Amino acid sequence: PLDGELPGGEPSLVGLWPLGSLINHSLRPNVTRTFAGRCCCYRSIRRLKAGEEVLDNYLDLRLPAAMRQDMLRRNHAIEDEGPDSCDGPPSEVAELREAHGAIIENLDGAKKERAQAAYKQLAELTNRCEELGVNDPALSEVFKDFGILAGRLGDAEMGLQGLARALELATARERYSVISYALALRMLHLAVLAGGDIDGETRGGLEAMAKKHLLMVFGPWPGLFE
Q1: Contact at 8 Å (CB) between 64 and 94?
Q2: What backbone torsions phi and psi does residue 34 show, to the nearest 5 degrees?
Q3: How distant, in Å, are the alpha carbons of 8, 71, 78, 159 from that of 74?
Q4: For 129-170, what is each residue's pLDDT tens digit?
Q5: Nearest 5°: phi and psi at 25?
Q6: Exposed site from 2, 44, 170, 196, fewest CB < 10 Å?
Q7: Mean pLDDT over each residue of the chain, to the nearest integer
Q8: Alpha-carbon dihedral 159, 181, 95, 146, rounded to 10 degrees
Q9: CA distances (Å), 189 to each of 21, 80, 182, 185, 198, in order?
Q10: Between the CA of residue 125 and those of 10, 112, 139, 226, what are the distances in Å?
Q11: pLDDT bracket for residue 3 (50, 70, 90)
Q12: Rg of the Cα trace of the chain?
């Protein structure tokens, strides 16, 4: 709600957490936010100095600059801090995201030939992303889907490379988040499914990384990872 009113076109149901509303927004937050039932939980993702303000990212960290600006103005009446060094050129990022959406549309359950064609297209798209020379979290989904598809087609090593790059982009501003944990877990899952194609040391390292992200995001919750 903004000044007691819901913006037009928004859902009629909202959740209100008065204490959480005291935390200001930042493009580079120092806490991550999760929910446990009706409880809104915040955990620091780095050491905080005495007196340092607690800051949360109100938005999906994968949003491009233009969408961040629009949502913050419309829903919170504040300005976005960007563009920053991570943000790619708006028109090119929008074009890449649109191309990505077109490639993965209706890809679930696709036959091998369709999957292979999409894989080639995604590979070309990741190259175009790299040519921008920025670590824009808005492009992390391109690499995530490339990695997942590579794994489906039997190339576990390439799949891990794609997912690792997705994780690198997703953590460019926020070291730990629900999104970073999901990506770390995907990497471990792919390595386990690949069996002998991925050595035990690599699997062990990926498991340790996934557990680290889980701990930072959800805290010491016995048995949760298992």
Answers
A1: yes
A2: -135, 175
A3: 10, 5, 8, 38
A4: 999 999 999 999 999 999 999 999 999 999 999 999 999 999
A5: -85, 150
A6: 196
A7: 93
A8: 10
A9: 36, 36, 10, 6, 11
A10: 33, 20, 10, 35
A11: low
A12: 19
